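To: structure desk
From: M.T.
Subject: fold request, one chain
Message: Could you run this one when you get a chance? Sequence is below, nothing fancy, just the single chain.
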Amino acid sequence: MTEAKLQALLQQGEGTQVEFKAASIGLNRDAFDSICGFLNRSGGYLILGINDVDNSITGVQENQVQSIVDNMVTSANNPERLNPPYYLSPVVTSVNGKQVISLYVPESSQVHATKGKIFDRNQDGDFNITKNAELVSQLYLRKQNTYSENQVFPYVQVSDFKASLFDKVRNLARNIQPTHPWLAMNNEELLRSAGLFKRDMKTGGEGYTLAAVLLFGSDTCIQNVLAHHKTDAILRRENTDRYDDRDDIRTNLIESYERLMAFVAKHLPEKFTIIKGQRINVRDNLFREIIGNLLVHREFTNPFPAKLIIEANQVRTENWNKPHGSGAIDPANFSPYPKNPIIAKFFKEVGWVDELGSGVRNTYKYLEIYHPGAVPSFTEGDVFEIIIPIEGETVQDTTQKIEEKTRGKSSEKSSEKSSEKIIRLLKGKNDLSAKDLAKAIGISERAIEKQIAQLKLKGKLNRIGPDKGGHWEIMEE
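Reply: Done. Structure tokens follow.
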């Protein structure tokens, strides 16, 4: 949080969406009452190091700051302290030599409890409503009506989900956290742990939610639940009336993400840089944010198709939205609002998005490296639009430049580059065929088959399942 934003909140004072705590030497015992209340009501800011009587900055003792931050993060992920758990990201700000800890807590699509107690908020603070059955019921109903991802489908069964996705999700989660709890769960337990099984407070019926169907559903299941569901990936450079290439994606969000990333990899050039000692693919990191936003923060019940459109000098995305404002988003002064918190949290568990609000910041950061001087735009409305200015260079242009630079070098080095491209493309979409790889890289299908054979011999690539219907597994070094 910037000092200007903090001063504005101090001037505004406490209310439904602002809570001050002194917390000079430790986290207040009732801090999670406020966190729970924010999650259950409409979100808000918890700020530690502020006198809640006169709104003066008293500060948190410097030697206690890290301990308090760690305590907040750990407790928020502990179901005994906050149930269901929720990822939180405190920020430390220094003001006139005093340390202030601020925490933005978004509204959640779930009802949360702390130590078994359900809290709600109003202008006067946090209220324990656990024993008030009517208020608790109203809270559940409001969450269900506000967030369509929570809609319950009692007749959807585990057999309606695509079985191969569960192992894929576990592998992705393992890459982020080697001891992730999903690794020890069966498929049904994983779905429940991810908040994808709920009880309908109107009817009392239980079942898997729309979020579960969108994440794991077979194509048939998804079409039965949402016949209009699709994401359109379009290349429109030369044939601007129609398209030069297109992927009409009508499948689950997990495979939709992989196909969109593969479409970007096919038509936009790579660019690498070093960040904190690591070699980073800037293009992939940039469009990870764009595609994550396109898939996660959209209103799925509306038939408007989500679109990713690559044009001559820009990439544009559009998705239907439940707006919480209107017009251009100012990255220096905006409060992120979760559109589908359960789906967003799931994407975070597999490493495809970061905490709420990071997407705008990361887009600015990576775009400045990918295309220096370019500025993205985010426009809030019934249709949420992102525009990413890019250079007009294509993958084919970049490939030609590389070939010109490397012409005359040994075929061994050329072979190594092809192998790297194969690995990169399969990381984006692991069921590409030799024909698909040959088309994307620009070499013969026979050459691709030779490279794949070499990669398998070196233990870098493994085939899972049959030629049709199987997929490739990248063996990490």
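Reply (cont.): The longest helix spans residues 411-428. Let me know if you need anything else for the meeting.
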